Amino acid sequence: MTFFEVAAMSEAEADIPPFRYTAAMAGEIETRWQNYWDEHGTFHAPNPSGPLSDPDHPRAGAPKLYVMDMFPYPSGQGLHVGHPLGYIGTDSYTRYARMVGYNVLHPMGFDAFGLPAEQYAVQTGTHPRKTTEENVERYRAQLRRLGMAYDNRRTLATTDVEYYRWTQWIFLQIFNSWYDPEHKRARPISALVLEYEKGDRVTPDNRAWEDLTDVERREIIDAHRLAYVSEAPVNWCPGLGTVLANEEVTPDGRSERGNYPVFKRSLKQWMMRITAYGDRLLEDLDGLDWPDKVKAMQRNWIGRSTGAHIGFPTAAGPIHVFTTRPDTIFGATYAVLAPEHALVDELVPEQWPAGVNPLWTGGHATPAEAVAAYRAEAAARTDAERTSESKEKTGVFIGVYATNPVNDARIPVFIADYVLAGYGTGAIMAVPGQDERDWEFAEVFELPIIRTVQPPEGFDGKAYSGDGPAINSAFLDGLNVDDAKAEIISWLEEHNYGYGATTYRLRDWLFSRQRYWGEPFPIVYDESGLPVAIPEDMLPVELPEVDDFSPRLFDPDDADTEPETPLSRKSDWVNVTLDLGDGPKQYRRETNTMPQWAGSCWYELRYLDPRDESSMVDIDNERYWMGPQTEGDPGGVDLYVGGVEHAVLHLLYARFWHKVLYDLGYISSSEPFRKLFNQGYIQAYAYRDGRGLIVPAEEVEERDGGFFHNGVPVFQEYGKMGKGLKNVVTPDEMCEVYGADTFRVYEMSMGPLDVSRPWATRAVVGSQRFLQRLWRLVVDEQTGESRVVDEETDAETRRLLHRVIAGVRGDMEDLHFNTAIAKLIELTNRATQVAPSREVIEPLVLMTSPFAPHLAEELWRKLGHEGSIAYVDFPTPDESQLVAESVTYPVQVNGKVRARVEVPADASEEDVRAAALEAVASSLGGKEPRKVIVVAGRMVSVVV
RNA sequence: GCCCGGGUGGUGGAAAGGCAGACACGGCCGCCUUAAAAGCGGCUGCCGAGAGGCGUGCGGGUUCGAGUCCCGCCCCGGGCACCA
């Protein structure tokens, strides 16, 4: 028998009073109130205008509060108790906010495109839409059972045709825009066309615009679009049959999903020009109320570095390097290209130059052989080997010398795998004196080392990368690093050797996937092979029915394969006749679909105005809920709660789309999420037997400090809740055995919302006892009648009541739900010891309602009120009750507490001092105190 | 290696520089009960019979007073990592 069966049985068989707050009683109350809320639309939030406006709503025109959770992907497993932690947190917080007067918007939706439904479809033939919709319904039912106060009119799933219609519409806005670096914002592509037409902008080859063919013009324009097709190296994953974004590839070169090998291949794919927004995505982080950790991760991912591009002349043309330390150029004693660098083949000479150091040639007869051998060696090395810390620097001389433009020094050119093809220009000037990696390389290959920054006195390291005066650097000597940088950059620009530059680690976002279950692109191709946008009035482009949902899959290790999309096999859909303005013509549809991130890039906007059929969102509604509140405020959702795992991917993409829509004037906020909060995770113990097999966690007993399964010792481990570890506990089981309110209170009282913690079913009973005591304060368990009396409570209880009110309010504002609940328990425990006075019980019920809403509604009724508790004013503390009548001062002698004295709250400092000294007289042993410190209201400290 | 978090009873966790361990789980004792469960009440950081002493990862420091602030370490978790 499982824990839950035992618990359910003992309850059923127990001889309990007829009106006790049991799980069965809770279940009945909870269902009844969930129905009431639905029928009355209790949690509908009024918009200022449009179909969702409601001037008669109790919060119409009130200050607004927009709180959102990261919506879930509805998996086939349903929710476990870890999932709703954040949801219960935001639900409790928003229920509180509603009671203190806010017009609260708190919606919920589903991120429903994605791989699992598609993979299930491939295996079983079930349409992913069917699986997805069933899973969404299951999630909805589970969340409803927990009493979530969502505005259900605003719910959405990214797979709804009416939703992805607008996802496609946004794609078209991005496609039809370009980034104007002069105005530092996106502008309509038509403005760019106009510039070319007027001759304000020159074409790449300087020909006049009117002399270009239509196709040539389109190619020029397409090259500026924020969404564009490019033939570029992408991450091709044969095992998944699709390409992946950089963010979806792990550092060891495998797919984040499925852990298949990923290969760099040049393929034609859709890209989003997120790099154009690099500066703004970086700088605007400063104005966001986000965890520093997440900001740091985004900064790191964007990876902006400023420096210079510098040309180092060679016989075959200049080598362009990027450096963040142009000030050290006098110390550049060699140059390095990435092994794959395109210039290498052009540079390599027939013969080694005379007198070459044999160490540099790798023992090869000619430079060409040395290069080929090194390339083969580098390609065979895994990434892990390549970057392993202990690895000695490798490389090979390619037989040519470049010229250092500042002093005409002849410097050898190497290829080495410590220079990456994908960053900067794929080439560096090596300055061993100031760069640790270059120093190591220089030691291996016996290259000269010249310091150009004076290290501080006593510096005994090798490369010195800190600040200091320049040395050995001609006209830079004596300048500090920053000044030397500025000086050398203007010198380089003046002499045409280089220019100041900024590079980013951030790459453009690979936006197409070779999958079925995603948004189709609103794009067709004409006879020129160039993309043509589907007009907005022809949206949505619906996902067609197909027989085979899978892309073509390959041997995961076979890099030499080509993607084939599921939609491409549907030729009657791919080849289409459309009238796009110049009469019916034949077109070929785009057969890629959008990545799963697309739908979650803008859902915060659609919640605002889900029924708007003429626009994505009405800007008046957007301005009310998300607009900037003060000068310099970026606007956005007031509180966005979710896991830290989305720190880079989702949050960076969503910010990017939001900024494009802002630039184009569709919305008033420049950031989607003003405040971000990362909730912790609930994990659980799992158990393995002697053979290493997982046993069901709920069947394990703990005794004598050990764990046993059917009497056999097992070993405890800790991890994510999941089928694999056989340690899943579901909210449905919790509702069954304890009721939703108990479950909610338990999750909120376990600890602070942002801390991860282990699940402990057996501890849930503490929350149930709390709610049962609260219930008993109001309801006679034998008769079901109210026990509450109208007499005032005693003075001490009254002071506690107001202290609790003040404390709970503060805790709620700070999302400190665990301490708020502790205070409510304290008040409840006090209230059970005195007469059940309405003066105490009503505010107690109100304060408990954000956490245990069904129970609170029920008790509010029993206290004689009508309607819902949802919009009743939250209790306000009586300030006069917050000052105690008397204060107990601990008295310290030399830092140790030796006595306590109770004095009237208004006692003077002298009186407190006198009382304290008298109380510790014996501890002083007749010695005269050297110093007596009285901290008003706190304590007395005596020093002898 | 670098950048963030975090180390408090048997457990989850509380503590504007001011009584360390609120609240809860578990444990022990008691009431109720033929009995058990539920419920209710009491005790529960460690050492000590007690008086008392010791206690917030370790070592220093500032302070009348440090879990909290400063310096140097150790351990755990997360992120990044040859990014020029």
Describe this protein's structure.
33% of the residues lie in helices and 17% in strands. It has 944 residues and is α+β, with helices and mostly antiparallel strands. The strands form 8 sheets. Strands 22, 23, 24, 25, 26 and 27 form a 6-stranded mixed β-sheet that branches. Strands 2-1-20-21 form a 4-stranded parallel β-sheet, sandwiched between helices. The protein contains 30 helices and 31 strands. The chain starts with a helix and ends with a strand. Residues 9-13 have low confidence and may be disordered. The structure holds one RNA strand of 84 nucleotides.
In brief, what are we looking at here?
This protein is 33% helix and 17% strand.
What does the secondary structure layout of this molecule look like, with pairings?
Elements: H1 3-13, H2 23-40, E1 64-69, H3 85-99, E2 103-105, H4 115-124, H5 128-145, H6 161-175, E3 177-180, E4 185-188, H7 189-198, H8 214-222, E5 227-237, E6 242-244, E7 263-272, H9 278-283, H10 292-302, E8 305-312, E9 319-323, E10 334-337, H11 343-347, H12 358-361, H13 367-380, H14 383-387, E11 396-404, E12 409-415, E13 427-430, H15 436-445, H16 481-494, E14 498-503, E15 509-510, E16 523-525, E17 531-533, H17 571-574, E18 575-579, E19 584-589, H18 597-600, H19 603-606, H20 619-626, E20 639-642, H21 649-663, E21 676-678, E22 682-688, E23 694-695, E24 700-703, E25 706-709, E26 712-719, H22 731-737, H23 740-749, E27 757-758, H24 765-778, H25 795-813, H26 817-831, H27 838-848, H28 853-862, E28 886-893, E29 896-904, H29 909-919, H30 921-924, E30 931-935, E31 939-943
Parallel strand pairs: 1-2, 1-20, 10-12, 20-21, 22-27, 28-31
Antiparallel strand pairs: 3-4, 5-6, 5-7, 7-15, 8-9, 8-14, 10-13, 11-12, 16-17, 16-19, 18-19, 22-23, 22-26, 24-25, 25-26, 28-29, 30-31
The structure holds one RNA strand of 84 nucleotides.
